[in-house]
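Lab notebook, bench 4. Still working through the backlog of constructs that have no structural model yet. Next entry is a single chain of 369 residues. Request: give me the structure tokens for it.
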Amino acid sequence: MRANVARLDGGGRIPGVDLARGLAVIGMLAAHLVTTESFSLARSETWTDVVNGRSSILFAVLAGVSIALTTGATRPIDGAPLSRARGRLAVRAGGLWVLGILLILTGVPVYVILPAYAILFLIAIPLLRLRAATLFVIAAALLVVMPFVQAALGLLPFWHTEAGESIGLVIGWPYPFPLWAGFVVLGLAIGRIDLRDPGVAALLLVTGGGIALVAYGIGGLLAPPGPVFEPVDVAGIVASVLPHSGGLPEVVGGAGFAAAVLGAAVLLCRVRPVLLVLLPLRATGSMPLTAYTAQVAIWAVWAFAALGTTGDLLAFRELHPFWPITLAVVVGCTLWTVVVGRGPLEAGLGALSRRVVRGSPPDARSPRA
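Model written out:
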């Protein structure tokens, strides 16, 4: 058991990355199950709205960080190891897609992010050799340009047809890969810099926080007065700061927010006494796929048992499920970490990828996600 706990603190992991992932997992659950008003700095009761949209962006950025850390971190792998890593990443993408479809079939009324993750993993494959500077340039270009492209794509009538709705589910279109690729590439870039350096973490915190404040501030100034409505034209979408709108202020602000949270988490985990206190969150973040899947599974079972259906979001929220599900997931992940070690779905998907794409293990000097 002691060895399993030490695994989270050992040289093969960056504890702050696990902490940030744990926060992202719980934030996504809160976004689904906690009803909040639109964020207002002057009204503290609306501050929980910070989880809406930003949690899933943080989740996507951290996916890119994880890919980078397992493919050489600051020293991208090459040659045969790179070929194996690409093959295994493709296998993981396939596994994520299948699991995502299974979660969709539960009927739980959430947009499952895993099919989009699968496509984003495939997009990352040709970028694994690139250095941080190049990746930051690509990420910046995607995050600035793709909101305009995605606004037009998202308004195509096809998505409102029966075929379009079905295809949208199986490719994770609520998290559209043309736009969300920017978040994963940003994570790849961050994972290619030295996250163990406190100066780098502080730079992420300050720079990311500054970008978020400026982007959200501009988005607030561009927002029309009066009641908040979903934008319905390209100009309105591009200028929107609303969660999941895909607007330029929302996309850039969310990316900055994710970088800031990661920087803060890495710095916080440099304080040794804090590591033990934060062990449950770090354990949850060490098995994000297991934790995410467990959320949906518990939700489906509970909703069906209590309501006779899994698809009534408002009725399920009236059961006040957020804290029970959150505690179940966090306690379960913590106990699994202490007693067993690596998350079951993470271990299973890793074993599958190694079985399909055989070869020597990754460089042990590379930090692990």
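Notes after review: The first helix runs from residue 2 to 9. The chain has a mean pLDDT of 92. Flag for follow-up if needed.
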